[in-house]
Amino acid sequence: ADEFDGIFVTDFLPPAIGYTALTNTTGVGDRSLTVTISDETGIPTDGAFVPRIYYSKNGAPYVSSACVFVSGTVTAQTWTCTISSSALGGVMAGDTVRYFVIAQDTATPINVGSNPGGVTASDVNTVTEAPSAPNSYLIVGTLPTSVNVGDGGMFTSLTNPGGLFEALNLGFVLAGDTVINITSDLTAETGAINLEEFTEEAPGGFTLTIKPSGGARVISGTAATSRGIINLDGTDRLIIDGSLDGGEDRSLTIRNLQTGTSTVIWIKSLPGNGATNNVIKNTIITGAPGPDGLTTAGILTGSSVTIGGEAEAANSGNRVENNWIYGVQNSMYVRGGLAGNTDQNWVIHNNDFGSAAAAENNIFRGILIGNTNNFYLTNNRIQGIRSTPVTAASMSGIQLAFLVTNGVVANNDIRNIKNVSGSGAGAGGIVVSSTSTASNTWFVNNMISDIAAVGSATVTSNGHGISVSAGSGWHFYYNSVNMATNQASGITSAMHVTVGVTAAGALNIRNNIFANTQTAGATSYAFHSAAPAAVYSAIDFNNYWSTGSVGFLGTARATLADWQLATGQDLNSRAVNPLFVSPTDLHIQPGSPVIGQATPIAGIMADFDGDARDPVNPDMGADEVVGGAVNLDLGGRVLTAGGRGIGGVTLRISGGNLSADRLAFTSPFGFYNFEGLDAGTYTVTVFSKRHTFAVPIQVIVLGASQSNVNFTSVP
Question: Which domain holds residue 111?
Answer without folding.
Answer: 16-139
